[in-house]
Amino acid sequence: MKSILKFAAAAAIFTGIAVSDTTSFTIHILGDSTVCEYKASAYPQTGWGQVIGNFFDASRVRINNVAIGGRSSKTFIREGRLDALKSSVQPGDIMLIQWGPNDRYLGENSANKSRDRQVPFDSLEYWLVQYVDASKAWGATPIFVAPQNGNNGKRNLYTEYDVRGKMEELSKRYKIPFVDLNMKSYNYYNSLNADYVTRYIFKGFQPGEYPNYPDGFSDGTHFQEMGSLGHSQMIAEELESNLKSNDNLSDESKTALAKLVSSLKKRYTIKVKTNLSNYSGLITQTQNFPAATPMTLRVTPNAEVFEKWVDDDCNELSKNMIYYNFKTKARDITYTAMFKGGAACTPASHGEEDFLTEGSSSSSNTQSSSSHSIDEELCSIGKGDAAWPSVIDMYGPEISDGYSEDNHEGYTGKGFFNIANSLNSEATYHLTSEQAATNARVMIRYSFVGSTNRDMEFTIDNGTYDVVFPSTGSWDKWDTAYIENVWVDALDFKMTIKSKTSDGGPNIDMIAFDMASVYRTGCSYVNPIAPASSSSAETSSSTSKISVSSLYGVKVDWKANSIVSGCGQMQVLVMNSLGKILAKESRFVPAGESRLLYGEHRFANGHYIVHVMMNEKLVAKTSFTVK
């Protein structure tokens, strides 16, 4: 009877919240690549705006994350992104505003390729105040979030270029909340082992640790999922602290902040430990997250031999040193990394899970990709090679001053683009990247006849690059130009080319990136798996590290695309590392050798798992990596 009454009371509360429009509101998140959302192919790279919805009650809060990589407080406004929010913001909404990483001014003589986005410090206030003015004009409450520090040890970049101090000053002037994520993260990083900060918070991966980064990756600016979840926890704590002790808030700000804090979900202590008394390696730190938050447990031993992860009931969770993408429980819990030679697991007493009525806040992102249609012929230019894996046909831009043509020899793909013969002629292409890079290289294949250069300006996402194009001597003779150190995030973006001379620009056949999985938006082109003729897992540049686990005498040869089994109904499932089914085939097979897959399936870079079912029973598991 007690549990029935508890359910009834909770249902009544939930109903009251659900039908009350006055309690629902949107948190609009504005920021850069440390805040924005990333594709699953970039996992575990994550912006804090991508995961902060886990900390709020979905029946009351909607998340609208419009953060986008490469932008500063200045360029976000100049691109019209702040004005574009006007129709989405309602009275009573919240604006979380974080700028700094791309604003940081490095000087007129800096070699930085994105000087346009930098803001001299004496101009920073001008741009930040526009966010306050717009928020208030729309009836929303602005909250400045001082940017989290980079992986810089004792150096705090955002007190040197003092965006933290400027945000705090403006917050006091306008009597609005101030989230000091900068000092909170700086102090936290410096309380930890430096290797832990690099490998467990920032995007510092060793080869083989994460499926999407088989060769490893090093990045001291961006965060992996657990790092961004930790920052979201810090933001929640700062909001609560403001409500409790910030005496400078206006009545309107205090009312809005009280509403915001009351919508935070209950957080539970997630304790992480080992069964060793003298463990010397790295291990995930204790966290405080709401229920159903995505969680990763990690250990990086030195000489210790890891065996498995267990919960406080001694249930085995995983034999992998990195156990990720599970959801936290609605109670305090302890997870233990079990090592050989350590103490045996002993179940610990704990409370029951709480009854939950709320969920994680719903999220939308106005910058995310839509269903963009494109001529399929533009997707089939080719697969590239090891040096230039992403080849993109420049025929048929989405917006253009000029003509798509095929009236010269030697072009690749469907044709080439002939930009109009005038100064500042433009063409815009919609591109998608499944990976991120801070120093990508771009090759441009072009031709033209003339006595002077036809230089152009390329804007790739938010970076602008001047490119010199000397004459090739013939419209049928093609040459190449290059752009170095291009910043690319794992998202949809635009590339614009602009002529810098009155003669226009050259004919441009194609471009290529030296990173995998960049393509025209709307294409399904990604790197394919190795051909069936390949006989060794290590000889293919696109597939490696194949392992096969066969049960019941079934034999799978992924390279040969074959299976040896008994007769029956066979089902083959190919899943990505998050368990999403990407390919599924089902048919009856006779006893003996059969073809494993008949369809033409292509997979982006990353790790994949294959399950083979015979008569609804799992008979084989295979994994492969595309790189």
What's this model, at a glance?
The chain is of the alpha+beta class. The protein is built from eleven helices and 36 strands.
Estimated helix fraction = 10-25%
Rg, Å, rounded: 27 Å
Which overall shape is indicated by the principal axes computed on the Cα atoms?
A: globular
Structural class: alpha+beta
Strand order, largest beta sheet: 5-4-3-1-2-16
Mean pLDDT: 84
User: How many β strands by DSSP?
Assistant: 36
The biggest beta sheet reads: 6 strands, parallel
Poorly predicted regions: 1-22, 366-370, 525-552
User: What is the terminal-to-terminal distance?
Assistant: 57 Å
SS element count, helices: 11
Strand content: 25-35%
Structure overview:
This protein is of the alpha+beta class and 627 residues long. The chain is built from eleven helices and 36 strands. The strands form eight sheets. The chain has a six-stranded parallel β-sheet with strand order 5-4-3-1-2-16, sandwiched between helices. Strands 17, 19, 20, 22, 25 and 27 form a six-stranded antiparallel β-sheet that branches. Strands 18, 21, 23, 24, 26 and 28 form a six-stranded antiparallel β-sheet that branches. The longest helix is centred in the middle third of the chain and has 21 residues, at 225-245. It is globular and about 80 Å long. It starts with a helix and ends with a strand.
